[in-house]
Write a structure and sequence with these properties.
Blueprint: E1 13-16, H1 20-36, H2 41-61, E2 66-73, E3 78-85, H3 94-98, H4 111-118, E4 121-127, E5 131-138, E6 149-154, E7 164-171, E8 174-182, H5 187-202, H6 208-218, E9 225-233, E10 238-244, E11 248-253, E12 257-260, E13 266-267, E14 271-272, E15 278-281, E16 287-291, H7 312-323, E17 330-335
Helix pairs in contact: 1-2, 2-4, 5-6
Length: about 325
């Protein structure tokens, strides 16, 4: 179980939810986060109900239930996002399970319906035998447009910070995203990842290869990192990609399957032979998946019917649940403009 550490509100905190006491702890953490964001009292109450119901569902129905509580932001406001993940038993009919009165544990069966009503925005994906992923947000007022890209990171078991990170930005109408894996794990790896995120966020608009070069220079005083940067050009239906080290990138689609992206050997900040940018077709309906080596590459989207139609948060959480390892930090980023 985790609290919300000072300075990590946007990164969020993970909670194992296996008993009533842990369900209460995650609800209190969500309430503290909402208070710190000066969220109106009515919306704090909605959030509290939503988190209590989601945590209660994990305790009653789930195997290996965990929840992530974190801040979400746009240009004008901030809200709270809750991601609940479990490994079974899953739901064959999500819409029926979300209806009031349906229960599989002898309860009133109003939990999932209450979650969806209290949320400003929500998304849900479930497969029998694999489990369920719920993403829900509460905003102070009207929900902003759904995000086109989102990521999730999880620290190595026993560590309080993750050396994996990600960032998403729009610079001069260029939609760009980065995944970074600080060398090793623990605070020094996290520092390298944080430097990469800050540098990426503040760098002038430029091609992915130009940005990788800038990050290589910026990371020279850290232990270094593997990283990759992608840019999606919707008008041209092209994905531009450049990377150093073992960040995995793939283009996924229902019609064409999976296509891997090329990252060159090296350690940003310390070792590089060359930096090259590659262009790939990225037709409408494509999904970009990027992840660190804390996620195994054997994951197959065809085993998850309908998943690519879900939100980036739900896709990322599903991949992290089923392909993330506990022996390393793990990070996943999904973009689907």
């Amino acid at each position: 179980m985790s609290s919300l550490p000072e300075g990590l509100l946007d990164a969020g905190a993970w909670f194992r939810v296996e008993e009533a006491a842990s369900a209460s702890a995650v609800r209190r953490a969500a309430e503290r986060l909402a208070t710190s964001l000066a969220m109106p009292e009515r919306r704090r109450a909605d959030l509290s109900i939503m988190v209590a119901e989601a945590a209660g569902n994990l305790v009653k129905h789930a195997d290996q239930g965990v929840m992530l509580i974190r801040t979400v932001r746009n240009e004008d406001d901030a809200g709270v996002e809750v991601i609940a993940v479990d490994s079974g038993p899953g739901m064959a009919d999500v819409m029926r399970s979300a209806g009031d009165g349906h229960s599989t544990a002898g309860t009133l069966g109003i939990g999932l319906g209450a979650i969806l009503r209290q949320a400003t925005w929500s998304d849900l994906y479930s497969v029998p035998g694999k489990g369920t992923v719920l993403a829900a947000q509460v905003w102070p007022a009207t929900a902003p447009a759904p995000t086109w890209a989102s990521g999730i990171v999880r620290a190595l078991t026993g560590e309080h910070v993750s050396g994996d990170g990600y960032a998403v930005r729009t610079a001069d109408a260029r939609r760009q995203m980065m995944v970074v894996d600080g060398l090793g794990h623990g605070p020094l790896a996290a520092t390298a990842a944080q430097v990469a995120v800050r540098t990426f966020d503040n760098a002038p608009a430029g091609a992915p290869s130009t940005l990788v070069e800038a990050l290589h220079r910026a990371l020279g005083h850290t232990r270094g990192a593997a990283l990759a940067i992608a840019e999606i050009d919707q008008d041209a239906e092209v994905l531009r990609y450049a990377g150093l080290g073992n960040i995995s990138g793939s283009i996924l689609s229902v019609s064409a399957g999976r296509r891997g992206l090329v990252s060159l050997p090296g350690i940003a900040g310390h070792q590089r032979r060359q930096i090259r940018q590659y262009d790939y077709p990225f037709p409408a309906g494509s999904v970009l998946l990027m992840h660190t080596d804390g996620v195994v590459d054997r994951w197959r989207s065809e085993e998850y019917p309908g998943l690519l139609s879900r939100s980036p948060q739900v896709i990322a959480a599903t991949v992290l649940r089923d392909a993330g390892t506990r022996r390393d930090d793990a990070g996943v980023l999904v973009a689907k403009p």
